[in-house]
Amino acid sequence: MQVTERIDAERAWTATALAGVAALVLGSLAFSDAVYRGFVWHYFWGPVYADANNAVCAVHSGGSVELLYNQVACQQAVTSGAVVAEPGYTLVSEVGYMVVLLFGLIGVLQLLRRLDVGRDRGLFFALVPFMLFGGALRVVEDANDAVPEGVTQAIAYPWNTLIISPIIYFTVFFVTLGSLLVTVWLRREGYVETYMWPMAAVGSAAFLLTFGYLVSLGLTADYVEFYPQVLLSVVLIATALAGGIYLGVDRFRPEINAGTGLIGLVVLWGHAIDGVANVIAADWLGALGVDAVYSPKHPANAFIISTAETILPTSLLTALGSSWPFLLVKLVVALAVVWIFDREIFEESPRYALLLLTAIVAVGLGPGTRDMIRATFGI
């Protein structure tokens, strides 16, 4: 890409981003009920606000916002016609985040071009520890919510919003971006030969420190447990599934792996972690000696489980549970992604291919790591 074309693309992206922000701000000011209260607050900020305050829901009645701490009161608020936001995702919010993600990827692509990095596959592997870090960091907020009454939270509102979905994605992004900028600068100044290993080290250190903090809570805090068997089960089963599929494909249909190489294994592993963590958390914690119940937070996951409970025979549900179809879907989709990203895609646009694959792994490995670690600590 010529320099002038790159600059034009950067300016177009920046102008579009500013226009989008301006439209939301002006729309919220001019049509506060419809745009802000009925859309921005209802689907995006309201769920974060309720989650940050460990409430069942937040109610926006027009002039004020009230936090409610029982489901009956929340249902009554819905019946009364108030705008009610509950922690978690909705179809509207997930579509919105998807649009932001895709648009953000274009911006990151422009940044990588300006920095003249991202053509080497090493960047992909350097980013994997940051995905693990993001999942572990989200569990810090789960532990924060588990603090019993009378005990001071380690991270209070509003700072805890920085580690609540989806804002945590921006938090982790800026940590990752800062690491990239620093390590690229170190390489250009001659302090290191490559930016990828130092960057991977930063991400690994961030993950290990965060996980270490959670382990310390598990060993010292009464409100946090520690079930290493959950962590081991998820990692071992996911690794066996991903490795088995990858090796089987490499043996019988090697052209599927030809484009992605070992990146394909990481794609499979990241989504296997997500799928296995959900299956164990939903159906098999009792078998592992964990007295806890977790429900799916994402509409897609909930839909698959609900459909399975409707169409599968009772005998099969009793034997295997109702969440295993989610794991199956995750593995099939991950393998399809590996198949789609052939050599031609990498030859035509290596940066964009690596960026898309990074995002695809992140949306599986990040939430999967969170679910796995949360169940490991019983929170």
UniProtKB/TrEMBL annotation:
Top-level lineage group: Archaea
Transmembrane segments: 12-31, 95-112, 124-140, 167-186, 195-214, 226-249, 261-281, 322-340, 352-369
Protein's UniProt keywords contain Glycosyltransferase: no
One Pfam match: DUF63
InterPro entries cross-referenced by the UniProt entry: DUF63
Keyword vocabulary terms for this entry: Membrane, Transmembrane, Transmembrane helix
Protein name, entry field: DUF63 family protein
Record organism: Halorientalis pallida
